[in-house]
Write a structure and sequence with these properties.
With 260 residues, the chain is of the alpha/beta class. The protein has helices spanning 51-57, 81-86, 104-108, 128-142, 158-172, 188-203, 215-221, 244-252, and strands spanning 13-22, 25-35, 40-44, 66-71, 74-76, 89-92, 115-118, 121-126, 176-180, 207-211, 224-229, 232-238. Helices cover 31% and strands 28% of the residues. Bound molecules: adenosine-5'-triphosphate.
C-alpha cells in the first residue's frame, strides 16, 4: 500500500468524510477520495461498496448527508450536475444518459446546441450543419469511429453508444471525467478503444476517474487505485507498485490494509 509521495501536487479533487444514508442503508460511511490533476484513478470496491454513490456525491447528482468536497483546494458544494459542469467535471453514468431519438451530434451537443445566426443575432433554430461539423471534428479528434453521424443513437450498437457518451463527456470536460463502468457491455476491441480514449484525455491534461469491475482494464490504464469497502476508503495503491491479488484482497477485506 502506498501513501501519497511528498512531491505530489495539490489534489484536483478531494472528498473527505462523505456519508450518505438511504433509509436503513448506509451507502457511504465517512468515505474519502482523492484525484490528482491529469491522472487516471480507478475507484474499486465490491458490489454495494458505495462507488456509484460516491461518484454521484462528487458530481452534484446527490447531496451527501455529511462531509466536504474540495476542488483545487477550495471547498465546493455541488447541488446539481450543472455545478459540477461549471467546474469542468463531466460524468458518464452507467445508463449513458443519451437521448435515443437524437443523432450522435445532437447528443454530443445536448444542452449546448449551436443556433443559426440571423440578421438580428441568434435565431431559435438549430444550425445542424455546424453541429454535425463540430461533432465530426470531436469524434475524429478522439478517435471515435461513427459510421453515420446522422443516424439516431437508438439504432446503434452498445459499443457505439458508449463511444458517443464517453466522447460527449471528454469533449466538454476541462478538468475531470468520471466514468461509471465504461466497459461493462463492451467487447474486447471496444474496451480497447475506450482505453485509448482515456489515455488521450489524460494526455490532454484532464483527470479520469474510472469505476470498473474489469481488473485488466484498470491495470491497463490507471495510475492509481483507491479501494472502497462498506462505504469507506480502505486502501490506495500506485498501479506500478501493486498486483491484482493485493487489490482484490483489499476489496474483499481478506487481508488487513491500512486506511489511506
Ligand atoms: N437510491 C438508493 N436507494 C436505496 N439504497 C441505495 C440507493 N443507491 C444505493 N443504495 C444502496 O447503497 C449501497 C451502495 O450502493 P452503490 O450503488 O453506491 O454501490 P456500488 O459500489 O456502486 O455497487 P455496484 O458495484 O454493485 O454498482 C448499496 O447497499 C445500495 O443498495
Amino acid at each position: 500500500m502506498t501513501t501519497v509521495p511528498p512531491s505530489t501536487p495539490t489534489p484536483l479533487l478531494e472528498a473527505r468524510g462523505i456519508t450518505k444514508r438511504y433509509g436503513q442503508v448506509e451507502a457511504l460511511r465517512g468515505a474519502d477520495f482523492t484525484v490528482y490533476p491529469a491522472e487516471v484513478v480507478a475507484l474499486l470496491g465490491d458490489n454495494g461498496a458505495g462507488k456509484s454513490t460516491l461518484v454521484k456525491a462528487i458530481t452534484g447528482t446527490i447531496l451527501p448527508d455529511q462531509g466536504e468536497v474540495y476542488f483545487e483546494g477550495r471547498p465546493v458544494k455541488m447541488h446539481s450536475p450543472m455545478d459540477a459542469r461549471e467546474l469542468g467535471i463531466e460524468t458518464v453514468f452507467q445508463d449513458l444518459a443519451l437521448v435515443p431519438d437524437l443523432d450522435p451530434a445532437g447528443n454530443l451537443l445536448l444542452g449546448r446546441e449551436i443556433l443559426r445566426s440571423g440578421f438580428l443575432g441568434k435565431l431559435g433554430v438549430l444550425d445542424r450543419k455546424a453541429m454535425h461539423a463540430r461533432s465530426a471534428e470531436a469524434f475524429e479528434r478522439l478517435g471515435v469511429r461513427i459510421q453515420d453521424v446522422q443516424a439516431k443513437v437508438i439504432g446503434m450498437s452498445g459499443g457505439q453508444r458508449q463511444g458517443v457518451a464517453v466522447a460527449r463527456a471528454m469533449v466538454w470536460a476541462s478538468k475531470m471525467v468520471l466514468m461509471d463502468e465504461p466497459t461493462a457491455a463492451l467487447g474486447v476491441v471496444q474496451a480497447k478503444n475506450i482505453n485509448d480514449l482515456i489515455l488521450r484525455v489524460k494526455a490532454s491534461g484532464v483527470a479520469v476517474v474510472l469505476v470498473s469491475h474489469n481488473m485488466q482494464h484498470v491495470f491497463e490504464v490507471a495510475d492509481r487505485i483507491e479501494i472502497l469497502r462498506l462505504g469507506k476508503r480502505v486502501a490506495t495503491f500506485r498501479k506500478d507498485e501493486t498486483t491484482i491479488e493485493e487489490v482484490v484482497s483489499a476489496m474483499t477485506g481478506l487481508t488487513v490494509q491500512g486506511a489511506a
